[in-house]
Amino acid sequence: MSTDLDPPPASAGADPTLLPRPTAAVAGLLAVAAALGLGDLVAGLVAAPSSPYLAVGDQFIRLTPEALKEFATSTFGVHDKQVLLAGMAVVIAVVAVVAGLLSRRTPVPGLVVVAVLGIAGVAGAAASPTFGPAYLVAPLAALAAGIGSFALLHRLARAAAPGSSHADDEDGPEEPEPSGTVGPSRRLFLGAGAVLLGAGVTGLLGRVLAAAGGAEASRSAVGALPAPAGAPKAPPADADFAASGTPTWLTSTSDFYRIDTALQVPQVSTADYTLRIHGMVDREITLDYAQLRSRALLEAPITMTCVSNDIGGTLISNAVFLGVPLRDLLAEAGVRPGADQIASTSVDGFTTGTPVAACTDGRNAMLALGMNGQPLPVEHGFPVRMVVPGLYGFVSGCKWITGMELTTYGAFQPYWQQRGWAARAPVKTQSRIDVPRGDAVVAAGQVVVAGTAWAQHRGVARVEVRADGGSWQQAELAADVSIDTWRMWRTVLTLAPGRHTLQVRASDATGATQPEAFSLTIPDGATGWHTVTVTAR
Ligand SMILES: Nc1nc2c(c(=O)[nH]1)N[C@H]1C(S)=C(S)[C@@H](COP(=O)(O)O)O[C@H]1N2
Ligand SMILES: [Mo]
User: Fold this and answer.
1) Same domain, 293 and 372
2) Same domain, yes or no: 303 and 191
3) Confidence bin at 230 (pLDDT 50/70/90)
4) Whole-prediction pTM value?
5) Which of 261, 318, 351, 394 to mutate to test the pocket of ligand 1 (most atoms within 8 A of CB)?
6) CA nearest to 162, candidates 174, 154, 170
7) What are the pLDDT digits (tens) for 139-190?
8) Is residue 399 lining ligand 1, measured as CB closer than 6 Å?
9) Residue 37 falls within a domain, yes or no?
10) Domain range enclosing 509
11) How many structural domains compose the chain?
């Protein structure tokens, strides 16, 4: 038997000592699939966040140069993780096929490639900032599964190869097998099927286990969180112009943007949770979840923004957070003179650095337990995260927070600051046109222009809009709920038929107007006026 892919025969017929290319390639793919499947199952069984596949992705995130990461978030936004995982899947599949094709004669080259892939998984797990020995179990099992299934499939394929003395004639009618034995081709087919089924079943079981053993069960058990001191205010009905196309003032939890470095969302149960406040303090404090939730709580709407939000971008959302005021905890611990930075650590090793002053100056800085009336969602930091109005998330929003060390800016550099981002990063005054969308075609005449503006902890005082570089026209502002939340605006412009450039700028309550000059998101947030081009007909 020969395939179209075989090299031109030197003499007559294909080289009978080589496996057919498709068989060799499929053996490589199946072996790697088996490795990944078993890896996920074992990761689920040992409840360590060490799916070898995701561990490699996590290391990739940690090691990628800043420019590439910037490109990924600005190009793919909140989908950057899916893009990374899909890219990894393609690379791994190509390597697996190559492993198979290298092994048409002997299994050794393919085994070496499969082993290298497996070792990459082990290395990924070993390099985790929260590494423990349990992390190695899944990648080592995956390594063994990859090597074992590749060796097995290769042996079966050799036996079934046309040059083999055992090969049966696939073109002719099935010869009757002596009872109790199975022909080599049939054996290869059964072996490949078993490996494929095994990969699928173990991978699926691994997912089920990961979901069941996760923090979602603990979150459901939290029940209703205590009411905050003081009557919680319902969000006012006139805080947005949603009918005109602005976002709703309150972002639903499912629409709230999500940004973090975690491919494997940290799974923390309230039973395991402790928070330690230490470093430059008079009294070190350790609190568990029950102690945190039984303290006096505060509830406040806060608009969070990511420093990676581009001009006109959507990495901004507004929710009502419920939590323990940081000023109370810090007063209890007693901040020593000279401490100016709080170094917060997440269970996954991520760190943030927050100015002490922003947590003690009276603003609603908190360790949040709740969001929009529910316990914090797992992907937003369950059971506890920090939220500080007026600061970008990377210097204030530590999710899955377990430690707060009082320190100095000189003594500690957090995760993003090690990668070139600013140490101090108050949110810059910004505004965005939501309606009409860029490149929209609108009816000429009276055109509704609407959007949002933010200047957290200073408050938005004025929003102005203009067309084609003409004079600025002041927009109508929605209800002023809090200086810590965004503010929706709308106005009507008169547009003649043709192309038009629309621009917006906001001023905060200190009187400062957002600058026109464009700057990148790195190191401390983008500047520039959001500009959209529309056509009036
Ligand atoms: N543990 C952890 N916390 C984190 C991050 C992270 O990568 N890991 N990212 C920060 C950044 S950059 C932002 S903008 C906010 C986003 O919070 P959200 O995902 O709840 O919107 O979380 C912050 N807290
Ligand atoms: Mo961010």
Assistant:
1) yes
2) no
3) low
4) 0.86
5) 394
6) 170
7) 999 999 999 999 999 999 999 887 765 544 444 444 454 555 678 999 999 9
8) yes
9) yes
10) 430-536
11) 3
